[in-house]
Amino acid sequence: xxxxxxxxxxxxxxxxxxxxxxxxxxxxxxxxxxxxxxxxxxxxxxxxxxxxxxxxxxxxxxxxxxxxxxxxxxxxxxxxxxxxxxxxxxxxxxxxxxxxxxxxxxxxxxxxxxxxxxxxxxxxxxxxxxxxxxxxxxxxxxxxxxxxxxxxxxxxxxxxxxxxxxxxxxxxxxxxxxxxxxxxxxxxxxxxxxxxxxxxxxxxxxxxxxxxxxxxxxxxxxxxxxxxxxxxxxxxxxxxxxxxxxxxxxxxxxxxxxxxxxxxxxxxxxxxxxxxxxxxxxxxxxxxxxxxxxxxxxxxxxxxxxxxxxxxxxxxxxxxxxxxxxxxxxxxxxxxxxxxxxxxxxxxxxxxxxxxxxxxxxxxxxxxxxxxxxxxxxxxxxxxxxxxxxxxxxxxxxxxxxxxxxxxxxxxxxxxxxxxxxxxxxxxxxxxxxxxxxxxxxxxxxxxxxxxxxxxxxxxxxxxxxxxxxxxxxxxxxxxxxxxxxxxxxxxxxxxxxxxxxxxxxx
Length: 507
Prior knowledge:
7-stranded mixed beta sheet; 5-stranded parallel beta sheet; 23 strands
């Protein structure tokens, strides 16, 4: 193990209030993708203890739902304070455990802070409706109540932000949360839980002990959350394959799932596009986070009239961009998370060549020998949208294709099973408005003159089709964590029935 990383990881975790017993002596081996070094050996929870934790969370919910929502918002405000005070440390931990460049590690923690701020305001705005009744002397209202225990299953690529998107809203809505993080990134989860416990201690006795619970373990622990009737809402982020399994199993017990799944995201470059802006946006969208965002740009659909101007410049950026350990250099592209990701990338590039594609880049870069997996991002010019282009490979591969008409481009964009994010580069208002219309992008997110990644918490995040249909973060996404109740109140002295029904029994 690298002495430097070992010492730094320990100092970071303990500085955020984590006991050494939580990250040492366990069975879950955590490696840094930066170097391949072992960072920690984390204890895993048993199935029996996980089941007991669900019971405790359910009991805690019975108490937490009694607390007024603005008061619940105060706890989330305190969590935001803890995150602000520990932004540098937690952001650094994200970089060491996931391999993100430092600004992206810090940016992820900033997302957590932002959603806390959003949720605090929301705690006074959990609005229902007043509805006009057809019956005299009657009032109809709609109100929202906490759903119960919310299970959160998160992925490695945003190891803490996804928890915050869900937890901040769930908590102000009156729910308790149980978190099963990725086995690849438990350290950031342990640190986040420690910061939450600090906030809860400052909040006082009104916060029950099992308000937020962390379950570190394998797939069998996630399966417990999925199967348990006491967990009415399960929010799961990951592959479409995983989401299909989770969604079906939760639905069988009539639970609700919030699914954030695959994204085979496209951008359309029109003849009216500002190509300098497009070049910069495409570079970040396709190569940021080493292509390991669910909103990463994976397909670029370019009008034939600007193709020969844009693509050679883009190939030049791909050839020049710095790949390396972002802790030791100013590299913009860090490592893939592990060997499986590297092998999946190489398999997709092989399939692209066999389908007639011209591959620029994609080769492994020797940064730390065989222990880590750095690659040069790949730009692949494809003759058509076929083969691996129709699939999501969680790696920095950008497939590029030509088009002639905007209708053709929109059809290409929409002709995949995923529907998360999309964008168009155009200065012609007619092109923009068509893209944003019902005839345009079929994705949950549609951007103009920017790439498909980099969503803000103020807007609901999620997508359609095999992306799962879930929404997290802004807008009215809070409703997914609550149950709706319609109330009819008769404040008169007679009993008129709806729809003019008569049922006179005397008396």
